[in-house]
Amino acid sequence: MKTTISVIKADVGSLAGHHIVPAPLLEIAEDNLKKAAEEGVINSYKVFHAGDDLELLMVHNRGERSEEIHALAWKTFLAATEKAKELKLYGAGQDLLKTAFSGNVRGMGPGVAELEIEERGSDPIVVFAADKTSPGAFNYPLFRIFADPMNTAGLVIDAAMLDGFKFEVLDSKLNKRVVLQCPEEMYKLIGLIGTVNRYCVSRIWRVADNRVCAVTSTTKLSQLAGKYIGKDDPVAVVRAQHGLPAVGEILAPFLHTYFVEGWMRGSHWGPLMPVSLKDSRCTAFDGPPRMVALGIQVCNGRIASDKDGVPLIADLFDDPAFDFARREAVEMAIVFRRMGEFQPARLSEESMEYTTLPEILKTLKDRFKS
Ligand code: 13P
Ligand code: 13P
Ligand code: MG
Ligand code: MG
To answer: Residue 298: beta bridge partners?
Structure first.
């Protein structure tokens, strides 16, 4: 029997600008998923939020891209949107770009990361969810985790990893994918995924046996909508241990901050801050961009749970070990904000294409003289 871990997320409205998903919306999601679990559509779930993004973590046996699971997520987002409208929350229904559901939420606005696995003796999983950034934000840590022996000791120490990992990279401009194998093609891989606004790592397998190890959401809202309507705050699911990177190796890249696209109006480079669930809210200049990490154990098609069926969740960044990265992120945030709208604080011209900047150019069109 195979088990699927699905994380489907959307910003359907938030409290006080783009800050948090308030309790009434989380309750609606909780009610919907509880009912779906009782009806046997899913086996276990966890509702949480990454800043203003409502995150549905669902574990089931229906495989990736299941119509039932996607319909459940879509219905849940619609119900939460209704509540958001009633409360006049900010950006009610922000990420729901289409009205008619046709079997799959891909291309409709929500972000999706799904991993169907053959359960091992023990299957530790890390679920990452970020706010105020974009799918390219996972390129750097995923490279460190699965390709850099200076980060992941297991690449050298554990014989099961010696053949390396394969990275599927999406060219979000051409909507084409290429698979590169590490360590052999490492330099080519870095060549591509260093360009975080265009290429993103979408899936990773272990070379030795093609075991799938990681998946990310790669939705680009601006490319769906043709204009800026909110950032593509991404999620990722990563498998750990026993011939794969250890949980500690998966978290090690976050000991330091690094820069990601997003932050205010999705238009700035911002230092990523790893945070606990309680700090999963963007404040200063709508940031800094934040990432939460949930640790779960998959157990016979479910999330390992307590006697009342409540899933056991490890809030992985709720740890003083990440205080230094958080401090660094604040310091870098201050440095970049001092620069205002001057590059490199602001994104490149190409990335600003989907904002209102082209309208400024339009107003000046006839005033440019040669
Ligand atoms: P244990 O020996 O505690 O299982 O740890 C192994 C490991 O993977 C540490 O990162
Ligand atoms: P979100 O994409 O998180 O909704 O943020 C949008 C924004 O413009 C923040 O300044
Ligand atoms: Mg928002
Ligand atoms: Mg968001």
So the answer is: 123, 303
